[in-house]
Amino acid sequence: MIDIKPIGENILVKVIEVDRTTTSGLIIPQSAQSNKFTAFKVLEAGPQLDEDMVGLTLIGYGQMAGIPVDEEDKVYLIPYDTNNFLGVLRDEAYEDFKSEEKDEG
Questions:
Q1: What is the largest CA-CA distance in the chain?
Q2: Any idea what the Cα angle at residue 58 is, between residues 66 and 71, rounded to 5°?
Q3: 5 within domain boundaries
Q4: Nearest CA to 60 among 18, 105, 6?
Q5: In this structure, what CATH number is given to the domain that contains residue 49?
Q6: pTM of structure
């Protein structure tokens, strides 16, 4: 696990990889994925935010701008603006999100 604690109202997230292969086996190219919804798992929250945010799955649209943090072949992100997230995805809804993303291809 990464050893970074965000300050202020910042959060540390990990992009949740969604299978980008269609049900028929076609791989969706990265260029066609940029305008899709992306899921992010909150790993750490700054002291001015509620600790209950840690562990939530947030939804954003397309690529989220922020500061990438690399550690042990994993890339994490501290987003520039948390207001760009569209909402919180409940755990049971995440499975639906993954299957819908896969079916859209």
A1: 46
A2: 45
A3: no
A4: 18
A5: 2.30.33
A6: 0.68
